[in-house]
Amino acid sequence: MTNQIKPLSYAYSQEVLNLASNKLAQKETNDCVVKAIATATETTYDQAHDFAKNYLMRKDRDGTHLDTFVPNICKEEMTIGRKKVAFDKLSKKRITNRYKVKGEIFDRQKTVKSFIKDNQKGTFIVTVAGHALTIKDGMIIDNAGEEYRMTRKVKGALQVNVTGSTEATQLTLF
């Protein structure tokens, strides 16, 4: 067995979202994008599931290729549950490292570990080969068993900004 380094800060999406009692989540498979949206926006699994179905054309128990739908959700502020959210696609420069070898310059995809190192603050939905996860202020929020896979190459990333709430604020005078 190889020496695997566990990240300093890791949370299981199943625990963060309290999915043990969620009937919809129990029936689902291939729902990493739904979990990433829910944990990044601090909404419920059901609200993120509805968002993925409506805006990412996700079918039940079928995966979603988030990168395909990035132009659709980065155009304007979106509503997920009762939260207003803006998604911003990170540029190629933010998800690659530049190396100079023998006078030649190369760009290589960052690993999850190097992405975290360069993005300590903020909330991101990160895509790697066939999977999506959340990185929030340097903490990975992902499925159990994924915590030792820090060398996966980042394929794309969205910065997530919760800009407000659609809930009316109730004032109490006395």
Give your account of this protein's structure.
This protein has 174 residues and is α+β, with helices and mostly antiparallel strands. It has one domain (10-163). 28% of the residues lie in helices and 29% in strands. The strands form 2 sheets. The protein has a 7-stranded mixed beta sheet with strand order 1-8-7-6-9-3-2. The longest helix is centred in the first third of the chain and has 11 residues, at 45-55. The chain is globular. The N and C termini lie far apart (64 Å). The mean pLDDT is 87.
List keywords for this structure.
174 residues; alpha+beta; 7-stranded mixed beta sheet; 7 helices; globular
Shape: globular
* Structural class assignment: alpha+beta
- Termini distance? 64 Å
Per DSSP E runs of 2 or more residues, the count of β-strands stands at 9
Q: What are the segments in which pLDDT stays under 50 over at least 5 consecutive residues?
A: none
Largest sheet: 7 strands, mixed
> How big a fraction of the residues is strand?
25-35%
Assembly of the depicted chains: single chain
Radius of gyration: 17 Å
How large is the count of helical segments?
A: 7
Number of domains: 1
What is the helix content? 25-40%
Strand arrangement in the largest pleated sheet: 1-8-7-6-9-3-2
Q: Can you write the helix and strand succession as a string?
A: EHHHHHEEHEEHEEEE
Overall pLDDT level: 87
List the helices and strands and how they pair.
Layout: E1 10-12, H1 13-16, H2 23-27, H3 32-41, H4 45-55, H5 66-73, E2 78-80, E3 83-89, H6 92-95, E4 96-101, E5 104-109, H7 112-118, E6 123-128, E7 131-136, E8 139-142, E9 156-165
Helix pairs in contact: 3-4
